Amino acid sequence: MTPSSQGGTHAFRGADAMRVSRDGIYRAVWRWHFYAGLLCLPFLVLLSTTGAIYLFKDEINATLFAHRTEVAAQNRAPVSASRLVYTASEAVPGGVPVSFTGPASATASTLVTMREGGSRIQVYLNPYNADVLDVVNTENDPMMVVRRLHSLSYFGTVANGIVEVVAGFAIILVVTGTYLWWPRGQGGGVVTVRARPSKRVWWRDLHAVTGLVAGAGLFFLAITGLPWSVWWGQQVRALSNEAGLGQPRALWAGKAVSAVPMKDRLTQAGWTMEDAPMPVSQPADAPAIGLDRALAILDGLGMPRGYEVALPEGPTGIYAAAIYPRDVDRQRLISLDQYTGAPLVDVAFADLGSVGQAIQYGIGLHKGEYWGRLNQLAMLAFCLATMLLSVTAGTMWWKRRPAGGLGVPPWPRDRRIAATVTALVLGLGALFPLTGLAILAMIGLDFGIQALRRQARRPAAA
Asked: Are 25 and 417 in contact (CB under 8 A)?
């Protein structure tokens, strides 16, 4: 063999080895993409469906439930808040009033929340004449049901933790899906769809092209949804607060506080302030100022219309007011001493740390609230694209699955490639510990199944 022919042979072998290596990486990535999809898809369909509905919560309440959320504007002043609370107390005789939410506009109703045993009861009232429009258990409110289904909190804390696992796997889905989509000289499946719906390649290409559009949206929704998660979200909140990048802790310096977090009394405290401790009133010989006076003070301090006020509980209780409007920059939380009316804590959006502000912006965009209708429609498009991704993935798998099996893509023959790709996936999972634990469990299960298969084949080989 001549030197030139030897060089050509070496070049051929090198190119062949490189092709085999690329094919092995593709197979390993495909396998993890399959695993992530297998775990995520049912939850992604549920999250996308409930999320798409909740995006239009205000519109749904203003149409389907207009009988309790809308009133006719009148040329007279509303009745006093104290009278509205009294009327609500009569509507729920065994209840105790815990919060008051004034109307956000001239045609909006007033909401008084009562506590009856372990339940919260919402009483909707006409602010002009104190007529009771509706009485609803909070747990049965349709939008609350949708919200709790979206977070899986409807099924308990453990189920709520699954959302964190799914969010982590959704990010892995996007990363691995991007690698699988990346053009490698193929004529379709990049921005065009080949063949017809009867063919598996049509579903594969539709899945890939949809993923090109939806991948960034799914990544964004997963990242901005994680702050609500059971473990990751709490750790981010704690670390950002410790670093002075979340709650403005200096505002609590030298103030007496209770062990009650804001989220226990307010539904609109906002992510950054949910775990902030409620300050306390200093008992005095003077009588309490009352709700009407407290609202007048809060209005004078510039609280936007439609804010929620938690009513004092006990001699050290406070008036805690919060507003969570569509315009994130107008978020605000104020606490008043129930005896003097003096502001104990006043936190505007600008007072939050950089991490707290960034997460609040992300949450506002996630909920379709910050950029108006454009934001809603963009998030709706991402939800619908995610549903389409799930349908195409399921159909594609159904068409390629073997009889009596799951059709899991095979590992590459080179174990080093499989180990390297798995280590990279595990590194992504380490950013979200619950997801990382799920990945370790899947690796253990995979090894266990492979060992059982090898053991089952040995007698046959003998």
From this structure: yes
